[in-house]
Amino acid sequence: MEPLVRVARGESPDDVGLPPLKKRIHKGGAKFTITEPEAMPGRSDVTEDNPVPVPPFWGTRIVRGVSLHDYSAFLDERATFMGQWGLKPGRGEDGASYEELVEREGRPRLRYWLDRILAEGMLDASVAYGYFPVVSEGEQVVVLHHGEDPDGVLGQAGLLAPDGGTGAPIGTDRLRFDFPRQRRDRHLCLADFVKSRESGQIDVLPVQLVTAGSKIEEFTSKMFAANQYRDYYELNGLVMQLTEALAEFWHARIRKELGFGSEEPKDTAGYFKLDYRGARFSLGYPACPDMEDRRKVTEPAEARTHGRHPERRAHAAPRTVHRRVRVPPPGGEVLQGVSWRLSGFRTAPGRFERMCRGRRR
Prior knowledge:
By secondary structure, the chain is of the alpha+beta class. The protein has one domain (58-356): 3-Layer(aba) Sandwich (NADH Oxidase), CATH 3.40.109.40. It has helices at 2-8, 68-71, 77-84, 98-120, 215-225, 229-257, 268-272, 293-301, 351-356; strands at residues 59-64, 126-137, 140-144, 173-178, 203-211, 321-325. Strands 1, 2, 3, 4, 5 and 6 form a six-stranded antiparallel β-sheet that branches. A hairpin with a 2-residue loop joins β2 (126-137) and β3 (140-144). α5 (215-225) runs antiparallel to α6. The longest helix is centred in the C-terminal third of the chain and has 29 residues, at 229-257.
């Protein structure tokens, strides 16, 4: 400390005996070759020969009163305990480990809240979901009008439209999603995973909106007003994760309805590792950055049936409403589904999928 004090008093660093500064070594990071816009390919190398799955119907169906027992099994406990409730291991030698905190605090509180949610009827889980005909044009996914299709204009003949259809001639253009293309690596774009219009085939776009219902707001508002901040904090975080679990649960149902039920994970942990056929991309992240597309998602899925009107703005409220779109890839890659997610169903997710979700592993 003495040399530093002498320097602070005005002496030269060279005269007080300070050792020379160490040279900082910067490790070289990964280097990417960025493709200039004028050299970008029109399409990536995603294969185009996979068969199109047959949906059980066209349009939207509404499912109300989904049992908590069914979707709570898909709850991500780690995300709940660490991300929402802040259970983190101590740093000192005497600090509790994460596993100890989970057994001592996490799971007992979780059981308490699940019992209370059921007993007091806090949640009214509902789902609006459906299947819509689509084709791709360059970097756009074009959603087509649908309706009763006895002649197979959209593919499989005889599919019904329980929502009555859109009222326009089936197979004509309805709305479009624009997705950017990677400027490096394989130059992937979500539109590459949908059959092109030139192929003469019509692909399938599953869409789902899930909600925990509006009743939960009454309970959390009362807790906040009564200064019951721990209860408010825990319940709010748990319901967010239960809504996510509901989305994952319905994602699995959609995969089964499209014929991929035999490829499900062997245990619950597999769902969080994406060990299934499908992938999830959240609108607002690199693969699908346009937040205004959220309004487009609510149009085919009829968000008003949930008693909400999230299409009025890009950032919908409450956070217990999750929307997702799944883009079914026409070939060897698979993209998958949660909360404004774009998903398809045809291989194991890789680096592109993780990048599109806005996180790295």
